[in-house]
């Protein structure tokens, strides 16, 4: 049995579908390269969305329409702990060969019939290019026909470590100005495939070199001319790039399965020593996506890319020549939400970016104190929610990028200590600090003090919960006494 036969044999319900179905594109390529496959694309002669819906019903998967006009759909299926994506699309030509010749790259223009997987359809020479490690466009108009392929070329060359054919490179560069013809949704999908990759930093660098990044995020261009004062060691754009790079290093050291080679610097090694015990908790957290379509890692990298996006409009220079960026976090939250909305991200993702970027200075401020209090931890998570977990990684990466080689163990230790206290509270002391088990509820407060439902009651409940987190209230009697004192203070202030 070939690798392709073994792959298709995992999903016998595919064979029960009526019509002609061809496995195409990346799944064929990656199987030939002995790479893991979890995304399968099918070219269908006939109604692709109807076929996808039938497959979802037969397999127990979840069905999503991707593009009604282009007759494409996706089925999400979980099997033995693995997540599988099945995309179905109608043939883009009168026959399979025409469909394949109209695709982006030769290595993606191979197909097999799901019922005869031992026969390879390869009209463009994709097998030879796959073996040679060459990324070659199927035609001179490949990028003009679909400019989003420019992003795909960058992603594939990095992920596969393939060399872009010189002629293909020339065609690609000449088509960059046409990227603005591509829908935001398609740009988003291709972009996130790179943001979710361990090579996100290299991908962003490559997109910048190709003058692609400024077409997607024109706001970034102003960062390149933005000077920053100490402790920053780089201008606005180079700091952003460094933040993305350091985020990748911290992810490898603290979220990915432990590998001693990932702690390849003193600062990362210290981070592992202080935070390594939260690895499983962090992995579980980041395995909970905000939307089924994209990973939490991808949206975190996007946040790193945009975290200082408002610095150019917030810039000022003091009398001593020091550059300031007052309010850039709040301005940046608004700008990032607008960018995310333009990219057609989901509401949870828009809210995530708004919260994360709006709060990205909080840990830095907390690190200035000698010790973080339980009350401060409670307030942090009350404001940030579980996005506060994501901020620990972003804040650490931001700190490393800010100081570069000038980062001292003392400054780094202070940041690590805050992150350790926050993660400890979330993963190990949630019922005591983050979400204290209520010792008193609104019904009791209304009955005891004659209060009516409303803002005053809500504020009183919140204040008691905060006092619980701080260890000041531990019982019903203490809660009532605290409420009584607070109501007296409120009454006196109103007189």
Short description:
The protein contains 26 helices and eleven strands. With 495 residues, it is α+β, with helices and mostly antiparallel strands. The radius of gyration is 27 Å and the shape is globular.
Features of the shown structure:
single chain; 495 residues; alpha+beta; Beta Polymerase, domain 2; Hydrophobic Seed Protein; Hypothetical protein af1432; 4 domains; seven-stranded mixed beta sheet; two-stranded parallel sheet; 26 helices; 11% strand
Structure write-up:
The chain has a 7-stranded mixed beta sheet with strand order 3-4-5-2-1-6-7. The protein has a two-stranded parallel ribbon with strand order 8-9. It is 55% helix and 11% strand. Helix 9 packs across helix 15 and helix 12 crosses helix 13. The chain folds into 4 domains: 130 residues, Beta Polymerase, domain 2 (2-Layer Sandwich), CATH 3.30.460.10; 74 residues, Orthogonal Bundle (Hydrophobic Seed Protein), CATH 1.10.110.30; 218 residues, Hypothetical protein af1432; 53 residues, no CATH class. The protein is α+β, with helices and mostly antiparallel strands and 495 residues long. The relative contact order is 0.06. The longest helix is centred in the C-terminal third of the chain and has 20 residues. The chain contains 26 helices and 11 strands.
User: Roughly what is the average pLDDT, rounded to an integer?
Assistant: 91
How helix-rich are the residues, as a percent range?
40-55%
Treating each run of at least 4 consecutive H or I residues as one helix, how many helices? 26
Strand order of the largest sheet: 3-4-5-2-1-6-7
Summed up, the domain count is 4
| Poorly predicted parts | none
Oligomer classification: single chain
Gap from first CA to last CA: 85 Å
């Amino acid at each position: 049995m070939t690798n392709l036969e073994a792959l298709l044999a995992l999903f016998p319900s595919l064979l029960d579908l009526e019509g002609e179905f061809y496995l195409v594109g990346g799944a064929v390529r990656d199987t030939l390269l002995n790479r893991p496959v979890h995304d399968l694309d099918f070219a269908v002669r006939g109604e692709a969305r109807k076929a996808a819906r039938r497959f979802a019903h037969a397999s127990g998967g979840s069905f999503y329409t991707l593009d009604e006009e282009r007759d494409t759909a996706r089925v999400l299926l979980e099997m033995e702990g693995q997540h599988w994506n099945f995309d179905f699309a109608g043939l883009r030509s009168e026959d399979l060969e025409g469909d394949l010749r109209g695709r982006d790259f030769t290595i993606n223009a191979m197909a097999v019939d799901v019922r005869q997987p031992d026969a390879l359809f390869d009209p463009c020479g994709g097998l030879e290019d796959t073996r040679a490690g060459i990324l070659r466009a199927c035609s001179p108009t490949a990028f003009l026909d679909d400019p989003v392929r420019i992003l795909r070329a960058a992603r594939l060359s990095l992920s596969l470590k393939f060399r872009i054919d010189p002629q293909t490179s020339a065609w690609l560069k000449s088509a960059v100005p046409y990227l603005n013809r591509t829908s935001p949704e398609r740009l988003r999908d291709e972009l996130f495939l790179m943001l979710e990759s361990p090579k996100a930093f290299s991908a962003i660098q490559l997109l910048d070199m190709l003058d692609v990044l400024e077409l997607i995020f024109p706001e970034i261009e102003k960062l390149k001319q933005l000077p920053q004062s100490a402790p920053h060691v780089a201008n606005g754009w180079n700091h952003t790039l460094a933040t993305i790079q350091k985020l990748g290093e911290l992810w490898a050291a603290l979220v990915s399965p432990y590998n001693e080679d990932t702690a390849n610097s003193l600062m990362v090694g210290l981070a592992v020593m202080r935070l390594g015990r939260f690895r499983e908790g962090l992995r579980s957290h980041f395995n909970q996506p905000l939307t089924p379509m994209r990973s939490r890692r991808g949206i975190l990298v996007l946040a790193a890319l945009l975290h200082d996006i408002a610095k150019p409009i917030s810039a000022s220079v003091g009398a001593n020549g020091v550059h300031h960026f007052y309010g850039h976090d709040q301005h940046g939250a608004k700008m990032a939400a607008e960018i995310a909305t333009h990219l057609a991200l989901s509401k949870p993702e828009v809210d995530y970016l708004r919260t994360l970027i709006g709060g990205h200075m909080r840990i830095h401020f907390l690190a200035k104190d000698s010790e973080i209090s339980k009350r401060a931890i409670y307030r942090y998570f009350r404001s940030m929610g579980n996005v506060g977990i994501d901020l620990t990684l972003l804040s650490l990466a931001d700190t490393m990028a800010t100081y570069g080689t000038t980062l001292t163990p003392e400054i780094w230790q202070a940041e690590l200590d805050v992150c350790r206290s926050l993660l400890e509270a979330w993963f190990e002391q949630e019922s005591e600090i983050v979400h204290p088990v209520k010792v008193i509820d609104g019904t009791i407060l209304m009955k005891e003090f004659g209060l009516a439902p409303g803002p005053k009651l809500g504020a009183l409940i919140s204040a008691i919960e905060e006092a619980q987190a701080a260890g000041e209230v531990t019982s019903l009697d203490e809660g009532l006494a605290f409420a009584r004192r607070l109501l007296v203070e409120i009454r006196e202030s109103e007189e």
